[in-house]
Amino acid sequence: MAKKISIKDIANELKVAKSTVSFVLNGKAREKRISGELAERILRFIKEKGYEPNQIARSLSTGKTKMICLMVEKISDYFFSHIAFLLEELAYKNGYKIIFCSTENDTEKAKELLGTMRNRYVDGYIITPSPGIEKEVQELIQDNIPVVLFDRYFPDIQTDYVILDNYRGTYAAVHYLAKEKIEKIGFITLKSIQTQMKERLQGYLNALEEFKLHPVLLEIPFGCGSSEMTAIIRNFLIDNNKLDALVFATNYLTLSGIKALSELKIRFPEDILIIAFDDHEIFELYNPTISAVAQPMEKLANQLFSILYEKLKHKESSSGLHQIIIPAELKLRASSIKFPFKQTVETGI
């Protein structure tokens, strides 16, 4: 394999200064009053030799790597993977590349990943924050590095963020059931201090309170595997065998719940009604189809990239916070009604 040439090699070969080669590479030939003939000679030589600039070295001279870090809880998750795909497309159209990484909601892993990304001089960050990384996020902001949080945020830190209206999303689902005279409505969620999970729980509790109904709540510890979640839900259903409806706080909890219902031979919607939070393509293929509070992913991705891109372009002059809350959609399907039909309801009640 041929040895990769460096800026120094190019300068020596053409008998020019390294700074001259660097200026030409970075599009500053005219600004630095380098003749068009010399600039053309350098560019022609670079093309012939197949020179590829070291991105980190280049970033030190330009201050930009054209790289964005997208840090999420789990890149394989249906929601996060779709957001990642949409963001990657937006970034590419605007001359940026995205580095993906997953924290698994682990504080130490998230801190380590942020340190790695800072060493790579990425230009900006889109972060689904794990608990306990407030200090690291604050340091990025203090160093004038563009950061946008999404899916959840830190209430005590002034940051840009784009989130779903989790409260109204769950409230709308429970409100719909209660209006249909469904009285015993269970809620299966995660035991979590994350803002989005707290808001979903509060939406459930407030909707019940409005109709003077009593909560039947299951909080599953974060990090349980699919089989363990199914077992916990199955035991919950056995202990609460008079439930009329179930609302699940995530799509993967819904999938484990469906398995538990199947094992107990509980049918929906005949024996119990169900609604999921976070839509999933499988919910429309399942028989019967499954109602869901849907996150409008294109809106979320567009808002996220728009805010970050603006901050990347106008780093010094960027002022004011962008804190965007996007409405969810309640998609009613067969699982939540006795006589199936399909309907989409805006959750802005």
Give the strand tally: 13
Helix content: 40-55%
Largest sheet: 7 strands, mixed
Instruction: Tell me the β content.
Output: 15-25%
CATH-defined superfamily of the largest domain:
Response regulator
CATH architectural grouping of the largest domain: 3-Layer(aba) Sandwich
Cα Rg: 26 Å
Terminal-residue CA separation: 65 Å
| CATH fold title of the largest domain | Rossmann fold
Tally of distinct domains: 3
> Uncertain segments of ≥5 residues (pLDDT<50)?
none
Strand order of the largest sheet: 7-6-8-9-10-12-13
What is the averaged pLDDT score?
90
Would you state the CATH class of the largest domain?
Alpha Beta
> What would you call the shape?
elongated
State the helix count: 13
Oligomeric status: single chain
**Helix/strand structural class:** alpha/beta
